[in-house]
Write a structure and sequence with these properties.
mainly beta; seven-stranded mixed sheet; four-stranded antiparallel sheet; 53% strand; globular
């Protein structure tokens, strides 16, 4: 059974940084592609970043490109999101996600990120 637990959210001033982490429990983490989504109040959940199973392929939403960096550590079963130059519009609940080779998707419970102006 796959479980994802996010941590690292909080309150930060505009221009600041936060690092989100996601701990994966279950088998064969290295076979899952992983990523981050976010959902702001009153808005739909949106894609933020993704990283392939080997860590060599990454993708970002245009809104975060150049400011956010996704990474993973297959030895520690973790995926991280380094967020720099944060803006108030980055305020949202951030969700970690993992996709298995059979297409099954798994989600964490989310962690709140609030950026004050």
């Amino acid at each position: 059974q796959v479980q994802l637990v996010e941590s690292g959210g909080g309150l930060v001033q505009a221009g600041g940084s936060l690092r989100l982490s996601c701990a994966f429990s279950g088998r064969a983490f290295s076979t899952y592609s992983t990523g981050w989504f976010r959902q702001a109040p009153g808005k739909e959940r949106e894609f933020v970043a993704t990283i392939g199973w080997s860590g060599s392929n990454t993708g970002y939403a245009n809104s975060v490109k150049g400011r956010f960096t996704i990474s993973r550590d297959n030895a520690k079963n973790t995926v991280s999101l380094e967020m720099n130059s944060l803006k108030p519009e980055d305020t949202a609940v951030y969700y970690c996600t993992a996709r298995a080779t059979d297409g099954s998707d798994y989600w964490g419970q989310g962690t709140q990120v609030t950026v004050s102006s």
